[in-house]
Design brief:
Blueprint (H helix, E strand, L loop, with lengths): L23 E10 L12 H10 L1 E11 L2
């Protein structure tokens, strides 16, 4: 299941800093969850999903990348 993102659609929108701008920093985090599914529906807010992920997270790892166009 995917919820609505900041672009107003479902799914990953990708890295897209303005052309000519300095490199933007992007962080990608993966979580190992203690549950098979989060108790949220497709209309859940990003804040609620984030809370539920952190509440059920056993471990996580983050990678940081820089990107510019």
């Amino acid at each position: 299941m995917q919820i609505e993102n900041d672009f107003g659609s479902q799914g990953f929108g990708g890295a897209c800093p303005p052309a000519g701008d300095k490199a933007h920093r992007y962080q990608f985090t993966i979580h190992a969850l203690s549950v098979k599914n989060l108790d949220v529906n497709v209309n859940a807010s990003g804040a609620l999903v984030g809370y539920m992920i952190r509440r059920n997270s056993l471990a996580s790892s983050t990678i940081e990348a820089l990107y510019k166009r």
